[in-house]
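A quick aside before the break. I want you to see a complete sequence-to-structure record at least once, exactly as it would be stored in a machine-readable document. Don't worry about memorizing anything.
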Amino acid sequence: MVDITENGRHILRFKRGGIEFEIVSTAEQVATVWMSIEPSVVEAFASGEVEEEEETEQVEPTTTEGTDRTRTRRRRTTRRRAPGSGEGRGGRAEIASRLADADLTKFPKLPARPSAQMVGYATLHWAHSELDIDGLTATEIARFNTDRRRFSRTHQAFTQALGKRVSSGEVDVRGTPQVFRLMADGETALKTYIEEQAKK
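That is the input. The structure line, written in tokens, reads:
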């Protein structure tokens, strides 16, 4: 969660189990830190088990008349899977598996040194048209391109490159973790880019 202090400083704070993270700084610095760690944090929350403590209170009589009573607190800890853990059809774990096994024959032909933006566009286009996957996270795009295409860029690079194109309408982003989708204008931009590169 993000709070704002009385002096205008921003606080980024989250907690999972016994680990708690907090940073207090300017809005720009907090945003920069969050952009770099968000995929890892969200993935940890989504794929891990979260401990939740629940307290139950039992009241027991201490005399035969039952007039004097004592309160005994019993604490039990339950373990619940975090929502969005990737289990079941359509989960992020299944998407990662499909990306790892997919045929790359119809992946768009890109130049030798394409930008992270166009690699992201090509990956989103291919995943949607060939695998019927409507949107990928920056982490999924980065891992797929590193493992399958030997194109190494960080997930932060894809987050920044694709995030800049949201305002133009070429990219849509939603959800937690952030899932990027290529819009019609983005499809046109990708097609134009590939055609122009082919002429060189």
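Two observations worth writing down. Residues 27-47 form the longest helix (21 residues). Helices lie at 27-47, 92-101, 116-131, 138-148, 155-163, 184-198. We'll return to this after the break.
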